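Reviewers of the previous submission asked for a worked example of the structure-prediction workflow described in the proposal, so we include one complete record here. The input consisted solely of the amino acid sequence. No template or homolog information was supplied to the procedure at any stage.
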Amino acid sequence: MSENPTRLNKYLSEIGFCSRREADRYIESGQVLINNHPAEMGQKVTDADTITVQGKNVKAQADKEHVYLAFNKPTGIVCTTDRVREKNNIIAYIQYPTRIFPIGRLDKDSEGLILLTSDGDIVNKILRSRNGHEKKYLVRVDKPITEDFLKKMRSGVPILDTVTKKCEVEQIDQVHFQIILTQGLNRQIRRMCEYLGYEVKKLKRVSVLNIHLDLPSGKWRDLSPEELSTLNALVQDSEKTA
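From that input alone, the workflow returned the following structure tokens.
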């Protein structure tokens, strides 16, 4: 970290303490102190400041190598770092020895690939949906797929007061299809299918950008140097929040 003042949420993200979104929640709830005074949204800090979150002193980790993991999430595990309110959280399940957090979410009833890291900067780059970062899913529904269903899924479905972006959808067999999204709306695929009269029976994410699922359920691995290099190249021009 440099001595130049940095917005508090960005600072906490860049040292690998948490994502910017999570940092904002800590700040808003009064759980962050700067030099023993309550932090304010948008406040700037440097390494010279003493920063505590939930009573714990935050140490800069700029000299440490970040962690990048691929994890095959089983159903029933919740993608949150909140160990108090959610006992089946992803962090407790993995039990990694240093602080990490998931990049985005995969709902409790879904399974498959999710990335975790200590690098808050890459989290924000990947989560910006307008950057067009692709995520691929395999889906099983409760009844035979029709051409009308495929056409409407591809062209956009009205959910959550918006219309989903056009996307790639390929039928695999009578009740299975593959879909590639560049959005991350809450329970998006399930809501899209429900709107069209279908119920999702199984949902599995099989890739995020250049990272492909190659693990048994419940297992994780480090990203390879090649995967990480390609990932960084893919997101290097992504917009970042201030």
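The radius of gyration is 19 Å. We consider this example representative of the routine output the project will generate in years two and three.
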